[in-house]
Amino acid sequence: MNTPSGPTTWPRTEAEALAVQDALRARVDETDHSPEPGAPGSLLAGLDVAYDDDRNVVAAAAVALEAQSLRVVARATALGRVAFPYVPGLLAFREIPALLDALSALQGQLGRDPDLLVCDGYGRAHPRRFGLASHLGVLTGVPSVGVAKNPFVFTHGEVGPLRGDSAALVDSSRGTDGADGADGVDGDGADEVGRALRTREGVKPVFVSAGHRVSLERACAHTLSLTPRYRLPETTRHADALCRQTLREAYGGRRP
Question: Fewer CB within 10 A of the end CB, N or C, for the chain?
């Protein structure tokens, strides 16, 4: 199988990518336009990627689940050349071209946009307040949330032991590195960028942040609706398995 080519028009340098982030961040809508969590008939799309570092290839997966039953109704994948070097805080530029291809294919199967994008990553919980979930949300116009496995560069207080317990995920620097930390400031003067949220009793929390057209409260509610049995959302679990399977099937473990 041939290694896919990358996009022909895409930021090539860190300065170009930062300029794109600055321009798109101004378009983030923090009001809520997402469906009710678990609403019958609404479709939630999980998005994730896997890398083949030897070939400089990324496999993207988009999986649509019916919100009430959490039944998978459509799947789509895309392979793409990694389009940007590794720079902390700019990882979205490595993944978005393939993710958009997978999402476009998923939309073709569904005949419409999903009602919510659930990304394995960050939204507002990002040094420049514009992580993958925010970036994809702004580009597509679809409400989006980020649910991450670790808190990135942020901190949080003690999270209670029960499912649904949470603590503010904060940036005590209040938005250095060019980010706007003036809003969402807690009583201690720290910028609340998300929540550490316990989805299973006795299991470490996940880290939820709003992406675009979703409030933080609703983002947490969606996350709890998507985690009836496991720590991670069902959307993420299905997308993670699919993108890894895509790499295995594409190259079968062969060296380049």
Answer: C
